[in-house]
Hints:
The chain has 757 residues and is an alpha+beta fold. Among the domains are: 16-159, no CATH class; 377-451, no CATH class; 454-755, no CATH class. It has 13 helices and 29 strands. The strands form five sheets. Strands 1, 15, 16, 17, 24, 25, 26, 27 and 28 form a nine-stranded mixed beta sheet that branches. Strands 5, 6, 7, 8, 9, 12, 13 and 14 form an eight-stranded mixed beta sheet that branches. Helix 1 packs antiparallel against helix 4 and helix 12 (722-735) runs antiparallel to helix 13 (738-755). The longest helix has 18 residues, at 738-755. It is elongated and about 90 Å long.
Amino acid sequence: MQRLALQVLLVLAVPMAALPQEPEPITAFGHGGFFGPDGKQVPVTMAFVTKAQAYYKAKLVNALPATKKKAFAAYEKGVLSAITPAGQDKLILEHQSIEWLIENTADQQLKLQSGGRLRALRQAMNWKLPDQATLGEAEKRESYTPSPQVRERLASPQLKLMNLKLNSGAVKVFAATTNSGQAYIDECTAAGVPIPPTINVMDPMGITGWRSEGFIPTISQFITGTPAELRSYKSSAPEGMCFALPRYTDASKTTVELDGVICTGKQSSKVCFWDNQRAGTTFPFPAGTQIPIGVPATPGGLYQAGGKEIEFNSTAGVCTDCHAGENPYVIHPKVNLATSGPAVLWESLSQAPRNLPTMPVNRYDPLVGGSWPQNQSSQAASTISAPLSCPDCHFKGFAGRFPHLSNQIPGYCTVVLGQAINGPKATMPPGSPGSEATAALAFKNAWCNAPPTSTSEDTGDPHLTTINNVHYDFQAAGEFTALRNTDFDFELQTRQSPVLTSFTPGANAYTGLASCVSLNTAAAVRVGKRRVTFQTSGGFEKQGRFQLRVDGKVINASGGFDLGGGNKITNASPGGEADFQLADGTRIAITPVFWASQGYWFLQVEVLNTPAQEGILGPILSATDWLPHAPDGTSFGLRPIPLLDRYVALNQKLANAWRVKPATSLFDYDPGTSTADFTDVNWPPEPGKGCMTTTVRGPRPPVVKEPRPDLAKRACSAIKDKATFDNCIFDVTIMGDISVAKAHQATAKMKAAAATK
C-alpha cells in the first residue's frame, strides 16, 4: 500500500522575495554589476538607483512595527531638515535614511537580503551616475564628491552613520567559518588551501607571486563595464592554486576598483575567498600597489579581507551564489585570454606546460560565512537527461557537475546559466551555442524556481510523495533505493512486502491504477562509511519487534548515536522511532507501527528537508515525465493511456531500475538469505489477476478479506492535510486498524511542524 510519497569569474548576491506589485529590481549583484529578474545586467543610472531605493525602502518600512515607524519618520526628518538636496546628493542622503531602516529591522532574513544590495548601490554612488542607460567599458569614470552641505550633514553627530549589524539569524550553517584576519589564514592553511601572495607581487612563472594570464574580452564577460584581468598563482605545498580578477575602474587601467581572489586546495577541495575591502567596505587602489592578505602590513593599512569579514560586503556580494558546483572558477573553457597573437584558452591553463590544478578532487567546499550558500551538493545526474547534451560534458572530472539548482542561487541560475544557454552571450553547447535553448531553459526554470529543501514521504503503506510533492502509489515487492545523494554519500533503501487481499483496492488518483498493495517492513541508511538498518528481529521466518543496527551490530541509541561527519541518530530507543539528522540538512524519521489484528510490524518513513534527488522518491518536474527518472537519468516519458502500459512502466520498468541488487544492498540478512528472498518481480500482479499469491519467502504476509471504509472515515476525519488524509483513508480501509490512522496523524503533525521552521 505504498504511495511514493561558467563563463567569467564573478560574485553575486542572495535573492529576496519580490513585492507583489512589481518584480524585485536587483536579483543579483557582483563585481560592480547589477542584474534584474531576467538575468540581464542593468546600467546603474540615476533612475535605476532611485527606483531600487524606493523598492527596498518600502519593504523595510513595511516590516517595522508602528513605534519604529514613528522613530524612522523623526530620523528621516533630521536627515533632510533645512536642506534641499538634488540629484545624486539626494540619493546619498536617502541611503543614510535607509541605513537606519536596515539597522532597526528585526527581520534578520530581510536585513541580510536587502543590506548587501543597498550598500552596493551606495558604493556605486562613489562614481558619477549617468542619466542615460549605457553598458560597456568606459574610457574614463568620474568620481563623485557630495556637496559640502551634504558632507557636513552626514558627518553630524546626530546622524552618525550606523553600522549594519547583520548576522546569520536562522540561516542554516554548513561548515561555515567564523574567522577573519590571521585566524582565517590559519583556518585556510589547516584546510589545505594555499594562501595567495600579496596583491601585485608579480612572478612570470606564477609560483612566487602572481602571473598575468591576460584580460577577459568584454564580449565574453557576463558582467561588463570594467576591464577584467585574470591572474594566477600555483602552489605545490599544499597542492592548489589561486585566481585573482582585478577589475579596473575604466580603460585607463590606472586604478583597481575590485580585486576578488579565490584559492582552492586540489586534494582537500576546500576553497577560501578574499576581497579588497575592510569591515564590509570596498576600497579602490592605484594599479601596482601591493596589498597584503588578511592583515595590514602596518596598523590601519589596507589589506585583502577574507572569511567572515567579507560576508556582508558592499560590492562583492555573495560569492558562492555564483561560484557554485564542481569547480569554484566560473570561467568558460573556450574564453581566449590573449589580447593579441595566438589564442590562449582558459582550458589550456590546466594542461601542459602550465598544469594549473583548476579542478579540485571533489566538489569544492567553501570556507565562507554562514549566510552564504554552502555548495553542499551537485545537481543529480538523473535530472539532466535527453534531449539535452549537458551530461556529455558536465560530469565529475571533466567540465564538472552543476550545483544543486534552486531559488537560493539566483546569481548562478539567472546570470551564469541563463546567459550561457540563451541570448547574445550564449556559450552552450560548445560548437553550437544556444541551439538547445528551449530544452535547457525548461531544465533551468524547473529547478531554479524550486526551493532548496523539499519533503519526501514513504508512509508505511507505500504512499510515496516525491521531493517536489507529487503523490503516487508504488506497490512493488522487494528492496528499493528510495532516495540517494551521491555527492553527500547518502542513500536510503526500503523493503516493501506484499499484503494479500481478497479484493483489489481502489485506483490511485495519480497513476489511475487499481493495484494490489505492499507495506514498508524494513529500512536501511548509508551515510559516509556507516551503514544503519532498521529491521525486525526473530529470524527469516518470524517477525518480532524492530532492531536498530549500525554496521550489523544492534545498538541502543536512546541517548543518540554519532555517525561521524556531523551525522547522528537522535530520539531512538529499542523498538521505537529512529530519527536521523544528517549534515546536509536531511532528516529521516522511521516509525514502527504494529498492526494488531495481524500481529505484524511495518514502518512509516518520512524524509524532510533533503537535497537528495535520486530514487523512487526523486522529483517529477518536467511536463514530459510522470515518474521519477531512472538512475542513469533516463525518462519514463509521458503517462501512457493504456492501463497495461502504465502498469508495466510503474511496476516493472521503474521498479527494476531502482531495485536493490545483492552487491548494493544495505540490509542485514540471515545466513542463506539475500534480497532475492524478499523480492517478487511480479508483484503487484497485472490488473485482474487477484492479490492472494506471492513468491516472497518470508515472513508470512498479512491476509485481509474485507475492506473497512466505514472505520476509515471515522478514524481519519481529524487529518487536515489532504495527501495524508487520502493515504489514511486508503490504508485504514484495507487494514481495518485504527492504529494506522494514529500513525498518519503523527505524520500530519510532523509535516506541519517542518513547514513552520
